[in-house]
Amino acid sequence: MTEQNKKRERVYQVSSNREKSSHKLRYVEASAPHEDDCRLCVGSLATTDAQPCDFTVANTSYNDISKIAFLEKQLYSNDAYSAAFFYQALRQWPHTFLTLKAGEKTAGYSLMVPVSDSDVSLMSLLVGKMFQGKGLGKLLLSDSIALARSLGYKQMELSVAPDNASAVSLYRSFGFNTTKTVRDYLGPGQDRLLMTLSLWEN
């Protein structure tokens, strides 16, 4: 195996439990794309010198699905959300499905799912490793929160691994509070903090 094939990319992801309606945030490892991978998809992950002001967050369109699905496939392999799932998500939740872009490149996405008339759950938020260190996680989360608030939701919820200090710190910096810790939330040894954020304007 060459050094290139051994190369790993770390990505920042908030993802739902594939079997339940609960959610989790974690750091995961994904294989770097090979030279013969789809240029369209790899282009969505290519290293960029773009600065935060060059990125935009907008409602997801059908043209974004293939790149978003590629991001998922790299992370979760056979357990990844499929393109069909994202098409269905876009049909069901078109107003709470966001894509982060730098020009034609797809840098990440955010998917929020309403759980009641007043509550929304942050189901998935992803920013690729090569786009990190630019404040883009904060940008995407900030825009997600602003969108949820503008749509009239009063509370946002999520869950996060207790030992994921950077993620917990990020959420707390946005005002999320821990409501409780659930042991074995996603299976033996998979404890999670449940966090909520009030979206009421002060």
TrEMBL record:
<dbReference type="Pfam" id="PF00583">
    <property type="entry name" value="Acetyltransf_1"/>
</dbReference>
<dbReference type="InterPro" id="IPR000182">
    <property type="entry name" value="GNAT_dom"/>
</dbReference>
<dbReference type="InterPro" id="IPR016181">
    <property type="entry name" value="Acyl_CoA_acyltransferase"/>
</dbReference>
<feature type="domain" description="N-acetyltransferase">
    <location>
        <begin position="55"/>
        <end position="200"/>
    </location>
</feature>
<dbReference type="GO" id="GO:0016747">
    <property type="term" value="F:acyltransferase activity, transferring groups other than amino-acyl groups"/>
</dbReference>
<feature type="region of interest" description="Disordered">
    <location>
        <begin position="1"/>
        <end position="20"/>
    </location>
</feature>
<keyword id="KW-0808">Transferase</keyword>
<protein>
    <submittedName>
        <fullName>Acetyltransferase, GNAT family</fullName>
    </submittedName>
</protein>
